Amino acid sequence: MRKAGLDEVGRGCLAGPVVACAVVLPEGFTDDRIIDSKKLPAKKRNILAKVITENAVSYGLGVVCSLTIDRINIVRSTKQAMHLALSNLKCSFDEVITDAVALNNIEVKHIHPFKAEDKYIEVAAASILAKVYRDSLMERYHYSYQEYNWFSNKGYGTKEHRQAIIECGLSPIHRRSFVKNVYPETR
């Protein structure tokens, strides 16, 4: 039975997209190092991302931009990113596992337990690939908008990032619906 693990990153960020990843691993594949991305330092995540991509039967990414997040909200955007990630898989699967996100229109068995990244290696692997991809994307955006220091904060609402918004205003990739308390001109 092929399991497609799904996870997302970037739901709480003030800038940038929400990114989801779907991963199908070979049946019986194990690697104790593959755990929830939030529990790993960046260097280990990058090493494990290579292990995952070299061993996965398939993986797919789904990216939904800040404009869409502002238009349809973060919950719908997260689900859209997850569906995109599933559609980018290059193999069939029999089951979809997400971390506490119930998806509609899934034609195979779908479970969505809390803390799925701690229970299913496929979900943990997806969390690592999504995090590595999104962090890399935000580091590239940093070079276009250095005043926000996304190389360091990745678009999350750190004190430094909030202060930069107050001083410099918003960039094209800021989520207007997320910064109303930081930057009143968006109200």
Question: How is this fold's topology laid out?
Answer:
Blueprint: E1 3-9, E2 18-24, H1 42-55, E3 58-64, H2 66-72, H3 74-87, E4 95-98, E5 109-111, H4 116-119, H5 121-142, H6 150-153, H7 159-168
Structure description:
- The protein is built from seven helices and five strands, in the order E-E-H-E-H-H-E-E-H-H-H-H.
- The model has no long low-confidence stretch (mean pLDDT 95).
- The relative contact order is 0.22.
- The termini are far apart.
- The protein has helices spanning 42-55, 66-72, 74-87, 116-119, 121-142, 150-153, 159-168, and strands at 3-9, 18-24, 58-64, 95-98, 109-111.
- Helix 1 crosses helix 5 (121-142) and helix 2 packs across helix 3 (74-87).
- Strands 3-2-1-4-5 form a five-stranded mixed sheet.
- It is of the alpha/beta class and 187 residues long.
